[in-house]
Amino acid sequence: MVNTKKKVNITEETKIEVQETDIPDDEVNWCSVSLSEVIKNSNRIEASTFSLEAKHSREQVKNSKYKLLPINGINSFTNAYHRPRFRRIFLEKSDLGIFQPSQITEIYPKPDSYISELTQVDIEKLRVHKNQILLTCSGTVGNVAYVSKTLDNNIFSHDLIRLTPYKDYDSGYIYAFLRTNIGQLLIKTNNYGSVISHIEPKHLENIEIPNPPDILKKEIHNLIVKSYDLRDESNDLIDEAEKLLIQELQLPLIEDFKPKYYDKQTDIRNFEVSLSKLNNRFDGSYHIPLANCLLAHLKNNAGEILQLGNKLFSNRIILAGVFKRTYVGENEGVPFLGGKEIMQLSPNVEKFLSRKVHNKLIKNSLEVKENMILITDRGTIGNVMIVPKHFEGWAVSQNVIKLECSSENIAGYLYAFLNSCYGNLFLQRETYGSVINMIDDKNVAKIPIPLLKNKEIQAKINNLVLEANKKRYEAYVLEQKAIRMVNEKVIYA
After folding, report:
1. pLDDT tens across 344-379, in order?
2. What are phi and psi of 96, to 5 degrees?
3. What is the pLDDT of residue 192?
4. Res 10 pLDDT > 80
5. Dihedral through CA 218, CA 219, CA 224, CA 227, nearest 10?
6. For residue 24, is pLDDT > 50?
7. DSSP secondary-structure letter at 86?
8. How distant, in Å, are the alpha carbons of 2, 7, 20, 33, 135 from that of 23?
9. Is residue 445 within 8 Å of 307, Cβ to Cβ?
């Protein structure tokens, strides 16, 4: 048993100090908390509400060699604001796609839903604009993104802080600063180190960060701009690949397919399924006529249709089993990504699996390699990602199916089809479950994949996707360089 002596001193500032003796420094983190801090933190005294790292981070920033400026407010870096709440009128499809705050970190986000122009809100003021910084302000606080071509002029919900810099070159610098560990701690905790779950633009007036020379800020800004330019270029290549795929297969819009229903006299969509086509599936969603229409079209326009489990496409389709996780520190384990994080170029990895405990499972089922294809298999089903180079060696959750492609000569093409709305229709068709929907490796193996008659076009589609994936890695490298510059030349200078 450790012999611990505790002594409480009431100072002039009414500070409660707990002095520990005989406790190794590397086993226990401790700090002093004043009574005024406890009161301002709603009288909460549990340790989890006070972040020791946050207190140290604020001290580090105060000791900066550069003058400090608030992020928002008078004589600050930016004008920060968000939009008021509004009641939305949703439509199945419209020209007004709306994104959710959680999507800002995705490499290539798609609209979460669609709203009507009759919605009682100034829609133009919901749009975000190039060179702005976006910051999530509730739920998961502190996710940050830079607005480039991909997000420019798109509509986001009210619950997202928009930061417009007074000087253009401050934008990339602020983004890079907020992506550092210290930047994240400053956003996610208040002045007293207590963890917060919601922030307002006015809170940014109390967060001060260093203001280095313009030449340094411009260098950091340019790295971020180039990083996001590469992401935009990669998204353009993905779009080009999908356009070629659609043209070669002569695919109409999904909504232009005309499924045949059993009884057209009723408002309820209904259809019949012959016993020979039942496939031991009694759930109606599997037999939707729309999927059958798409499959019939592909049979008429593709060179050949094979299932995804065919050896021509895949060596393995991996579904890791459920397991009890053992997490360790950042320098002691393997980065562990969940289903949402795989859609991000540079996720904030917070979980690290113990290699000592899970080494066999990591090697066999969790570890990913460049150009593998990842498919979310429960909750939000059918999100598809091709693994960039910097993910290689990381572990991905058992809630994500991993497709080990037979070669690089087919990996890009498979991604292009599975990532399209047509491939997604086949993925959704395989869904099963009553409370929590899911798919498994056996379902994914049955997904029909059309091969093109024109093999040169198929190869071009494949190469476009692989080139896009390389650009994403280059974008990641540039962003990491910018973050290192902030750490080395600003925070710890």
Report:
1. 999 999 899 999 999 999 999 999 999 999 999 987
2. -110, 75
3. 60
4. no
5. 140
6. no
7. -
8. 7, 14, 7, 19, 40
9. yes
- For the cut 60, the answer to whether the pLDDT of residue 253 exceeds it is yes
> pLDDT above 70 covers what percent of the chain?
90
Q: Are strands 160-165 and 33-34 parallel, antiparallel or unpaired?
A: unpaired
Rounded (10°) angle between helices 408-419 and 421-429:
80
Residue 69 region by backbone torsions, left for phi larger than 0, else alpha for psi between -120 and 50, else beta: beta
Q: Is 64 exposed, middle or buried (0-12, 13-18, 19+ CB in 10 A)?
A: middle
pLDDT at 391: 97
Structure tokens at 270: 């209904």
Structure tokens at 303: 């060179």
Q: Who contacts 194 (Cβ-Cβ below 8 Å, separation ≥6)?
A: 37, 41, 44, 49, 50, 51
Phi, psi of 443 (to 5 degrees): -65, -45
Compute the distance between CA of residue 438 and CA of residue 424 in angstroms, rounded to an integer: 14
∠ CA 479-485-489, nearest 5°, is 165
Whether the CB-CB separation of 154 and 97 falls below 8 Å is answered with yes
In the numeric block, which tokens belong to residue 331?
């320098």
> What SS3 state is found at 391?
helix
What global pTM score does this model have?
0.88
Computed from CA positions of residues 465, 466, 467, 471, in that sequence, does the dihedral angle turn out positive or negative?
A: positive
Under the banding of pLDDT at 50, 70 and 90, the label for residue 222 is very high
Write out the two tokens for 73: 């407010």
Contact 166, 75 (CB under 8 A): no
Give the Cα separation of 369 and 392 in Å (integer): 5
Cβ(405)–Cβ(315) below 8 Å:
yes
Highest mean pLDDT range out of 108-122, 129-143, 329-343, 448-462? 448-462
- Amino acid sitting at position 153: N
How many other CB atoms are there within 10 angstroms of residue 471's CB atom? Answer: 19
CA distance 105 to 131: 15
pLDDT reading at 36 higher than 90: no
d(Cα 444, Cα 400) in Å, to the nearest integer? 12
Phi, psi of 181 (to 5 degrees): -60, -40
Q: What is the dihedral of CA 336, 340, 341, 344, to 10 degrees?
A: 160
Coil, helix or strand for 233? helix
Three-state DSSP class for residue 390: helix
CA distance 221 to 228: 11
**Rounded to an integer, what distance in angstroms lies between the CA atom of residue 367 and that of residue 138?**
32
Cα–Cα distance, 172 to 223 (Å, whole number)? 8
The answer to whether 379 and 436 are in contact (CB under 8 A) is yes
Share the mean pLDDT of the chain.
89
Q: Is 265 helix (H, G, I), strand (E, B) or coil?
A: coil
